[in-house]
From TrEMBL, chain A:
Location of region: Disordered: 100-119
Protein name: Gas vesicle protein
Cell compartments where the protein resides: Gas vesicle
PROSITE patterns: GAS_VESICLE_A_1
Lineage of origin: Bacteria, Bacillati, Actinomycetota, Actinomycetes, Kitasatosporales
From TrEMBL, chain B:
Lineage: Bacteria, Bacillati, Actinomycetota, Actinomycetes, Kitasatosporales
Keywords, comma-separated and alphabetical: Gas vesicle
Top-level taxon of origin: Bacteria
Annotated Low complexity bias: 145-160
Name of the protein described by the UniProt record: GvpL/GvpF family gas vesicle protein
Gene Ontology terms describing biological process: gas vesicle organization
GO cellular component, one term: gas vesicle
Amino acid sequence: MTTAQRLPDPYGSGGGANLADILERVLDKGIVIAGDIRINLLDIELLTIKLRLIVASVDKAKEMGIDWWETDPQLSSRAGRDELARENAELRAHVAELEGSRAAVSAGEREPAQEEARE
Amino acid sequence: MSGLRYVYAVCRPFGTPLPAQLTGVAGVPPKQLAHGELVAVVGQVPEEDFAEEPLRAHLEDLDWLGATARAHQNVIDALTVVTSPLPLRLATVFLDDSGVRTMLQEREETFVRTLDRLEGRVEWGVKVYAEPPETAGRPEGSGGADARPAPAAGTAGSGRDYLRRRRNQRKESEERWQRAERFASRLHASLSGYAEDTRMHAPQNSALSGASGRNILNAAYLVPRTGSEAFVELVDRTKDDEPGLRVELTGPWAAYSFSGEDT
């Protein structure tokens, strides 16, 4: 026990450590070795922990850096809105372009329009 | 012996016996399985809980997961007292002892290299929380009453007052975050001076941790055992430097955050 004497008393580790501290290390850190029983902990993590957190609190999940759903239009109304905003901007640019060329046409002679009609 | 083998950690052989009353996952005392220069710390676990299908189902159960994680950590903690273990991730399970031996054999070189790197070191966790402004500011009793805007008898200035108040609130909160950020990076810099290596983890979710305030720094430090006292003292000294911020220290942990090969 010589090594133990050099260590200060535990702070929060063991009984006092909160579940998040323990899960953070036991589940997310530590060396990964494929045993005979094959379980993809990453799947488990995504399914239970992360989804539970999202259900519990979206803001908190975001603080944890779990934000993959934000950019998925199927899961996020914001991602949907972003998508719509982008589409809107594109359409507006297109409309402006068309209006611009129409204005140029009506400002000049009628010829191009007639030409167009003839074609 | 029937049942599966749950592996907690890989260590160098250590002379000190583990506490007799120590139990791990499934309530079973861990034992040492020596192979070559290495020791695997293993526990026998029942197939009906740790075969692939039941294990998968169990891991979906947050209560079971929490209890198992605590049991796992319980063994790692006991090991950390007597040696510098290489902790394995939760639920590393083999069919029998020979499977564990084969694993030790195949990875011997990597294990030895990592164990040499971690020898005599422990991990400390340091988190900084920003307390919500209600509790960080004035005492709760007076704060509640003052926070409500006084009915300003419909004067012409009330709209402007409202905007000014909003602007001040925004400015205060911005300043608070800047202060918190400055404090966290200063603390991290000075703690890094005592550490051989550091890792930044994602901030923790208070729904899971039950801690109050917003977690703004969640870092791990690899510190020699001999330097641990100085490290802890430094954290203690810095603790109360900034009102509204809380510093939380956990450890000594096994070097979970530094067990990867890429470090």
